[in-house]
């Protein structure tokens, strides 16, 4: 006997009518801000109730797919290997979303007695009740239960349920502090706090599991890049996040406080956050490799070796090859790597090495300190990357006769150094002082302008300006 299909069909048709009416009448656009806020809250409430039905249905499918005989499982009847695949095919969601639905159902779906068929208590009864009345959806269920379930079996089921009761009260706005109903992010914090309080000795077992699972794996190089995957230990992830935050924090101050208010704006940055994190990691790797603190390889510091034909380098066309990577790179990449590194010429004739030149064109530590004092950081306006994270760029290329001299070197972050030509900025030296010419999209006047973030030079500019006013 089908108890739900007719009612679901009726609800479905009414929902379609509501959605179409709202769109055709532009109801959301015509609402006041207060009305729109109330409408969004009401719509989200309906969505949570719909999720409650889905979670219960997924839980029943999981129960029917857990039978010992494979041919008797619901997943086998529908040609799926597991419940996640079945949920994915029926709901049209991602595998990750389907897995979340299965996890949520495990937390709130009552078990069924094998002997009597009677419904038993759910693992977290209060969370189930909050789901059924629309207080929490899938995000809320997992926010409350994930941390508490991780404490089993060290913490009793009764203690876990009691903690969940308190967090559910926070979800309803009935917590000890009488705070408004908490969102899923706050519920997760509350649940994690309870889990830590109940399971004070649980960190060590979790850390042992994390230590076993720690990994970083580089995939096979492809023409579009090298995939990377893995699991970081929490403290390693925190350190990496700190590096990202230091590199990616928004810069709100222009490089020259004495500049006119109508002067050019900081440089536009169209990178996605993922791309910016990649570039921050690239800069961190360069800093680590040049720090002198890493183990040596063959008696020398870890060195990225790039080989390129001299004729290709002169023409600016062709390919270069990076040791340790199967995919070739462009000559532009070779120039970027060589600009701040060491060049050693090796002469081959018929495959035989007939000449090895000496290492040349690398800025020494004394020159780097002097350039850092002069420039302060990356010279592209608005970038803000500090000197210690920057590379030194030969303004006039060494191949074109440019010397490795402080009058020919400027600080650039990894991103601006790597893509300088593509993003349109130009740099020149004017009596040993770096000047930049912005691209047309940045400043229609396109004037060469001296730049620095050096506190000493900026203070001198301000003092000079004060004296002339």
TrEMBL record:
It holds the Pfam family DUF222. InterPro entries: DUF222 (IPR003870), HNH_nuc (IPR003615). Residues 366-418 form the HNH nuclease domain. SMART domains: HNHc (SM00507). This is DUF222 domain-containing protein. It comes from Microbacterium flavum. The lineage of its organism: Bacteria, Bacillati, Actinomycetota, Actinomycetes, Micrococcales.
């Amino acid at each position: 006997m089908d108890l739900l299909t007719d009612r679901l069909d009726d609800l479905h048709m009414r929902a379609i009518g509501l959605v179409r009416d709202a769109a055709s009448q532009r109801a959301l656009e015509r609402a006041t801000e207060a009305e729109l806020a109330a409408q969004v809250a009401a719509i989200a409430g309906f969505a949570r109730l719909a999720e409650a039905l889905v979670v219960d249905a997924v839980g029943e499918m999981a129960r029917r797919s857990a039978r010992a005989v494979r041919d008797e499982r619901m997943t086998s009847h529908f040609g799926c290997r597991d419940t996640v695949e079945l949920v994915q095919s029926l709901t049209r969601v991602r595998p990750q979303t389907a897995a979340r639905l299965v996890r949520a159902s495990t937390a709130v779906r009552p078990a069924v007695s094998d002997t009597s068929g009677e419904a038993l208590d759910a693992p977290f009864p209060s969370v189930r009740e909050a789901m059924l009345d629309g207080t929490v959806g899938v995000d809320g269920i997992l926010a409350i239960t994930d941390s508490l379930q991780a404490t089993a079996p060290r913490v009793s089921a009764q203690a876990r349920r009691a903690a969940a009761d308190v967090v559910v009260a926070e979800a309803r706005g009935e917590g000890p502090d009488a705070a408004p109903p908490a969102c899923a992010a706050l519920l997760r914090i509350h649940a994690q706090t309870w889990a830590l309080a109940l399971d004070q000795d649980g960190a060590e077992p979790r850390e042992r599991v994390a230590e076993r699972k720690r990994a970083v794996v580089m995939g096979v190089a492809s023409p579009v890049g090298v995939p990377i995957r893995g699991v970081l230990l929490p403290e390693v992830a925190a350190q990496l996040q700190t590096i990202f935050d230091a590199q990616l924090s928004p810069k709100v101050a222009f490089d020259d406080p004495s500049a006119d208010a109508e002067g050019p704006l900081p440089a536009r940055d169209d990178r996605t956050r993922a791309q910016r994190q990649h570039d921050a990691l690239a800069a961190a790797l360069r800093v680590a490799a040049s720090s002198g603190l890493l183990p040596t390889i063959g008696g020398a510091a870890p060195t990225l070796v790039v080989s390129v034909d001299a004729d290709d380098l002169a023409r600016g066309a062709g390919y270069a090859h990076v040791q340790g990577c199967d995919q070739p790179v462009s000559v532009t990449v070779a120039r970027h790597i060589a600009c701040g590194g060491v060049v050693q010429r090796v002469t081959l004739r018929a495959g035989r090495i007939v000449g090895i030149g000496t290492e040349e064109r690398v800025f020494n530590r004394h020159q780097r300190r002097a350039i850092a004092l002069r420039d302060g950081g990356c010279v592209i306006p608005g970038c803000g990357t500090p000197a210690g994270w920057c590379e030194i760029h030969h303004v006039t290329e060494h191949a074109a006769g440019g010397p490795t001299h402080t009058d020919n070197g400027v600080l650039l972050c990894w991103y601006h150094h790597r893509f300088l030509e593509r993003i349109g900025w130009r740099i020149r030296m004017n009596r040993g002082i770096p000047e930049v010419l912005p691209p047309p999209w940045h400043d229609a006047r396109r004037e060469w302008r001296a730049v620095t973030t050096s506190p000493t030079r900026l203070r001198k500019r301000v003092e000079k300006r004060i004296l002339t006013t």
